[in-house]
Design a protein that fits this description.
Blueprint: H1 11-37, H2 50-75, H3 81-104, H4 111-137, H5 141-160, H6 163-169, H7 174-178, E1 180-181, E2 193-194, E3 204-205, H8 207-226, H9 234-255, H10 262-273, H11 281-310, H12 318-321, E4 327-332, E5 338-343, H13 348-351, E6 359-363, E7 366-367, H14 374-383, E8 389-394, E9 402-406
Length: 409
């Protein structure tokens, strides 16, 4: 292990940095588990209610704070960028293996393994890689400020037209699989990883959203080591970024808009550190060159994303294919059974007493775990349009399965 010696680091500071990383990471992990399983013991308010939004934000704000604390801790570690990057890469490997097993080879992975790889190892790995990149590529405060401006533009493009936008339009499960949080389905992706247990919040935080704070913070911590007069306060940057990200989370939670997370991060960094800008004529010219290059790269990514996702098989939305019954369904990851995600008012499913959160064990005697392909599910529903639908359900709080008969008008 290579450790850089610096007069700015005492053993107590190094220990504090390590425990900030570990404590923040484990705090975020425990919060995601709370989000996942609190609904087993406590009634969770409806997602779109005022109480539901408040409960979601009470969960999301500490989650964001824990992840940013871990990023700030990683930024203050004295180990070399190469060491941090290698450890970060190794910690991200488990999630890569899980993704290959589930999405490429269709091998079921135990839920505890998935949650640990997704919500503990992956964010720590990404944070360490971000800290390594920050030290390696940012050597001047002007570079940091220029990068903040570039990422604002870049993330707007990615979310509105680029990779993220294309993934959402293609109903890709990739975003949900690698994001930190509950993994609840968004309205555009009803067939994502859905759980029978109600969640505090379905909002997730992507890997890139924890990489960038670690990159920014690592650069800020490094500056005094490069030049003593570059004393940029980390605390000021931390709270500006946290405050604007928290505001963005409020908007995402209450409106459902896919707000680019790098935008409030970049704005927070610029507000906190604009006073340190000292661009020469040459540097301003270089910024324009960088802006043109960023536009070119964004265009290439948009074109590549469109081509990639256009070639991927899309998951048809169940509520678009079977509006007659009036329900929206997902898949319970650990059992492959179908789950009622939403129920339309005054439709046959609602009139039969079926509720969101009900696990569908079988329809007309066929176990839903065997209806793996969406086409098999749709075919079973179409076959039942004339004879009616006999549904066996499991409901949270009920000891025995419920048998319900649903008839179309």
């Amino acid at each position: 292990m290579t450790v850089s010696t610096s007069p700015h680091e005492s053993p107590q500071q190094v220990s504090g940095a390590f425990w900030a990383l570990v404590g923040g990471a484990f705090g975020a992990f425990l919060l995601t588990l709370l989000n996942r399983y609190l609904g087993v013991w406590v009634p969770i308010p409806a997602a779109q209610s005022v109480a539901g939004h408040l409960g979601s934000l009470v969960y999301l704000f500490p989650l964001l704070l824990a992840l940013m604390t871990a990023a700030a801790g990683a930024a203050r570690l004295p180990q070399s960028p190469g060491f941090l990057g290698l450890v970060g890469l190794l910690l991200a490997v488990p999630m890569g293996v899980v993704y290959l097993l589930t999405e490429t080879f269709r091998v079921p992975v135990p839920l505890p393994l998935f949650l640990t790889a997704n919500n503990l190892f992956l964010p720590v790995g990404v944070i360490l890689m971000g800290a390594a990149l920050g030290r390696k590529i940012i050597k001047h405060p002007n570079t940091l400020l220029a990068l903040a401006g570039i990422v604002i533009f870049f993330d707007i493009v990615m979310v509105t037209m680029g990779t993220v936008a294309q993934a959402m339009q293609a109903n890709s499960k990739l975003i949900s699989l690698v994001s930190v949080g509950g993994g609840s389905p968004q309205p555009q992706l009803p067939m994502q990883l859905t759980k029978a247990i109600p969640l505090l919040s379905g909002v997730t935080i992507g890997p890139a959203d924890v990489l960038l704070p670690a990159l920014f913070f690592a650069a800020i911590v490094q500056f005094p080591r490069l030049k003593p007069e570059w004393q940029i306060p980390l605390k000021r940057t931390f709270w500006w970024v946290f405050g604007l990200l928290a505001l963005a989370l409020v908007l995402v939670e209450t409106t459902g808009l896919p707000i680019p997370a790098w935008v409030p991060m970049g704005i927070g960094l610029l507000i906190a550190n604009a006073r340190y800008a000292a661009f020469s004529k040459q540097e301003r010219r270089d910024l324009w060159i960088g802006a043109v290059f960023a536009i070119f790269c964004a265009a290439l990514i948009i074109a590549g994303a469109k081509r990639f996702f256009a070639s991927q098989p899309k998951e048809p939305a169940s509520n678009q294919r079977v509006p007659k019954w009036g329900w929206q369904v997902g898949v319970v990851r650990e059992t492959s059974e179908r789950l009622v995600v939403g129920v339309m008012a005054n439709m046959p499913i609602e009139k039969a007493g079926i509720k969101p959160g009900d696990v569908i064990e079988s329809i007309n005697g066929v176990k839903t775990a065997t209806l793996i392909r969406n086409e098999d599910w749709f075919k079973a529903l179409e076959d039942a349009e004339k004879t009616g639908l006999s549904v066996r359900l499991r409901r949270l709080g009920e000891k025995k399965p419920l048998d319900v008969k649903v008839m179309l008008p």
